[in-house]
Amino acid sequence: MSDLLAARAQMGTSLAFHIIFSALGVGLPLLLCIAEGLALWRKDPDWMALTRRWTKGFAILFAVGAVSGTVISFELGLLWPTYIKYSGSIIGLPFALEGFAFFTEAIFLGLYLYGWNRLSPRAHWLCSFPIWISGLASAWFIVSANSWMNTPAGFQIVHGKITGINPFQAILNPSTPYQTTHMILACYVATGFSVAAIYATAILRGKRDGYHRKGLMLAMAMGAIVIPLQIISGDANARFLASAQPVKFAALEGIFHTQAGPPLSIGGLADPKTGKVYYAIEIPHGASLLVNGDLNSVIKGLDSVPPGDRPNPLPVHSSFDGMVASAFFALFIGLVFWLLYFSHKRVVPENRLLLRGVVLAGPLSFLAIELGWMVTELGRQPWVIYAMLRTKDAVTPAPGLNITFFIFVGIYIILSITLVVLLLRLARQPLPKLEWPVFEASSGEESEEEVGIR
Amino acid sequence: MTLAYAVLALLWLALIAYATLGGADFGGGVWDFLAFGPQAERQRRLVGQAMGPVWEANHVWLIFLIVGLFTAFPIVFSILSIALYIPFLIALIGIVLRGAAFAFRAHAAHAVAISKVWGRVFSTASVVTPFMLGTAAAAVASGQIRVQGSQVKTDLLTGWTTPFALVIGAMALSLCATLAAVYLTVEAEALKDTQLVEAFRLRAMIAGAVTAVLGALGLILSPSQAPLLWQGMLKHAIPVVLATMLVGLCTAASLFLRRYRLARISIVIDTGFLLGAWGLSQLPYLVPPDITVYNAASPPITLLAFLISTAVGMVILLPSLWLLFRVFKGRNPVPRVQGQSSINSQNVSAPRR
């Protein structure tokens, strides 16, 4: 592997790993906040038991998210020192602001995790608000920095020197509203469907009590409310890309030649060598119609830029299709679930096929996040800062990047295995005795010893 | 110019905060590493209990430092990332493993094997990381990182492998251990565990003495190994260096007199003076001898934006931090609800069904 490829592989792996925890870090606190609120309002032990269980899982997930995020902030410098040199004074600010949001999140998480017995129930619940709000803010700040890499703004280049810097313009670059919305919604979709998947699995295994049903309902509510918004946001993103980053758009749609009224290629392999998309379902004029509402508008193809400035459309197009397919699958599952619920006297549906669909929608919505990132990152290549700095010019001169890549892959594998083992153990732990008030009776681990449902 | 120094002062305060808070968490890991004898389990539990609610917030000071450097002095971040690639990489691996291991161990509940293995990882990573960060700091201070234009001219081993750097690395490690031991005397006192209080008092005094010896050794080595630092110190940091020594003696005295809360304040001030002395000695260089504060700083608008957003951020942050430390480190850190509630009272040996 060349050093450039190794550096890209390491950065990509680190981001792919970290993004799972960041998405849960945005989504789970909102679920916690709602569940604990319901518990206090209804004096319902089920909701409290769910809150407690999720809190324990979140404690581990947040820690891994915090350290894997630290890796990213170091790697920006260790792997891409030239990128730092160019971008720091322009786009460092949202990273700093994200630092504050993360700080707030960590502080209140400490209070939330360890404060069950030191805070009043209401104060404890209130601690969940800063967690989900700052999680949301973190996502916004970080994605605004990434947006800037796609549509750099807030500076001028005069005689090869950067001048006229305006950090606020940089944060509010043209991509920011589109990308931040899309990522934040993705966090809620993925959290909703993956938590739902856990309870669907349990119900499939015959645990049909109130605890599991409530867990499924709340998570499905989150997923199903957000997924239609996410699809609308995705459409807006694609239209925006067609004008702001036409090359990326061409890559994700697999459009090689600038033409009037190009077809929409669904699926298939976009082969950069032959300039054709193989095995795709083609809808004539589809791409043109989706972008401009016009059957014959001209859409720029990859050939609108020199070959050296083109991304490889093969992974970009396939990732894009995978993301869209996952989203529509989740939408379908969400719709069927709530249709069945409301048409059957508000009973949680237990159709086995549907529940299996929910189980599948969980991992698929995380897959959609990963694929969406592949689209935006691979689609920007060969640039790290679009039309300003090439990825190959940003990489560190340090040798042996292959070795560090494998070290980090090894670390991620070990962390993942441990995490999965611990979360599975947590899920299998017998439930605490479900009686109100849960507060006074239990405090973390001890109550879990009481024999519960297994 | 003034703006650049204002931002630098802010980042230096963050460095002090990271050293006194995050450093102590590494120090906790050091004592976990060194725990032995019949008390070992209780010591480890105390460390875990003390760190649990706060370590993640403490860790964010490091993130703040990195993003602050990135924003306000991007070229310094870039240069250090190239010149100190190896120590940063090792420290980074240490940081990842330390944090993950702590969480895994704390939440492994009844998974004895997992808890044991990750406990080992936690303590080992806690020893390695501050040492590497110390050598990296020494490499910067020594003035051996050379830059031409904006190209780093030194190889991967320069600066951080010298005797001076190794001494400072060891000193960083023992300082973390001292901080942790002093804090743990207060924690143990709150639990009314006299045995533990005495154990950590002794450890604090030994680690403090080791730190002082290593500090003196570093001072002796610096005229030859870090001449710019030495001259800078003679010029404008002598009072702070003296204050560091004096407050160090105060810490020792308050430990000796078993005034643990006083010792805690004293060691924090001492660490602040120590890092302050380093900072003052280095001025006007950020990476001596080629990069000064002035020629590394971002344009004024970026610095101003950073200062303003930090001010706004602090309005949220400081009360939150105050709340966190009041709830968990206040004068009466006794659970509101009585009973078996301390987080580490989980019985590791309880059988699984």
Characterize the structure shown.
The complex is a heterodimer of chains A (454) and B (353). By secondary structure, chain A is mainly alpha-helical. Chain A has one domain (18-249, 306-398, 411-448). Chain A is built from 16 helices and ten strands. In chain A, a hairpin with a 3-residue loop joins strand 9 and strand 10 (389-390). In chain B, the strands form two sheets. Chain B has a two-stranded antiparallel sheet. A two-stranded antiparallel sheet of chain B has the order 3-4. Chain B has a single domain (2-325), classed as Formate dehydrogenase/DMSO reductase domain (Formate dehydrogenase/DMSO reductase fold, Up-down Bundle), CATH 1.20.1630.10. Chain B has 353 residues and is mainly alpha-helical. In chain B, helix 1 crosses helix 11 (260-282) and helix 8 packs across helix 9. At the A-B interface, helix 2, helix 3, helix 14 and helix 16 of A face helix 3, helix 4, helix 5 and helix 13 of B.
How would you concisely characterize the structure shown here?
The complex is a heterodimer of chains A (454) and B (353). Chain A has 16 helices and ten strands.
Question: What are the defining features of this structure?
Answer:
heterodimer; A: 454 residues; mainly alpha; two-stranded antiparallel ribbon; 16 helices; 70% helix; disordered C terminus; B: 353 residues; Formate dehydrogenase/DMSO reductase fold; two-stranded antiparallel sheet; 13 helices
Strand content of the residues of chain B, in percent? under 5%
Share of helix of chain A, binned:
over 70%
Oligomer category: heterodimer
Task: Write down the Rg of chain A.
Answer: 23 Å
Structural class of chain A: mainly alpha
Number of structurally distinct domains of chain B = 1
CATH topology of chain B: Formate dehydrogenase/DMSO reductase fold
Mean pLDDT of chain B: 88
**Rg over CA atoms of chain B:** 21 Å
Tell me the total number of β-strands of chain A: 10
What about the largest sheet of chain B? 2 strands, antiparallel
Average pLDDT value of chain A?
Answer: 89
Choose one word for the global shape of chain B: globular
CATH superfamily of chain B: Formate dehydrogenase/DMSO reductase domain
